[in-house]
Input
Amino acid sequence: MLAYRQRGSYVAAVTSIRYCLALLLLAPAGTPSLLAQSPSSSRAQAPSEIILATTTSTQDSGLLDSLVPLFSASTKIRVKVIAVGTGAALEMARRGDADAVLVHAPDAERAYVASGDLAEGRLVMHNDFVLVGPADDPAGIRGLADPAKAMARIARDFTFIARGDGSGTEKKELDLWKRAGVDPEQLERRAETGQGMGATLLVANERLGYTLTDRATYLALRDRLSLVPLVEGAPSLLNVYHAYVVNAVKHPKVRLREARAFVAFLVAPATQRHIGEFGRSRYGQSLFHPDAGKADSTLGLRESARERSGTRVR
Output
């Protein structure tokens, strides 16, 4: 049984066995159990191991399964990945329960840099968000240039499945509702899964609803979905990823040397080339676009590199 939230309260939704099996298939072979990845156990580290708090899209897309072994092989540093919504990943940094973060909510990140919990931020990559839905598109949003107009049409009386987990994707969704002049709490047919992007896509597919997804996770699961991209390409749908070290001055247990090594690895030229090619042979397009060395302003972000980086940890 899957519990999901609708208009702020939990209700039970019985899903099919095939859906439950699909959820299990999201995890690559050999992936530790959810209990093993729980943030509450995050400080139980082995020597030369860092904890990376990150968004589910980097895990569900398979990108980290591709990058982490390369990093570990070259540095002998193991990486324990905690894939949660960006909001939860940032909170792990605030508590000192991670050594590095890889997240995609620039406005939310700013507060954690200002508080001194995050430091030495680096622009890593971007992709984009896509509004997907049933192929017959009952809300009539296909091809709309303005995602806010699409959200306004969905709000009339169509099913929308949200994450509701404080993730960067949810923050973008709520921003689009705001731009559309819609209060999502008043929508009878908007439901929150409280889960990651892959699971939320499967719920939306099961219920023939609309959802907002990052392109990488959608492409990774496309063969299991009947949902299709309907609104894409708008500047407001840009999805930007930064990496940070957690400030060891404020959080003394942080493994700063190892965290710095991982962030440096992400922005190294060879890794950036790998990111740019990731998924191209399988999906016919890159799942992420490398951005290391670019100014945030080139992607429409208002922070300067200095504001994003914060104070360098001594």
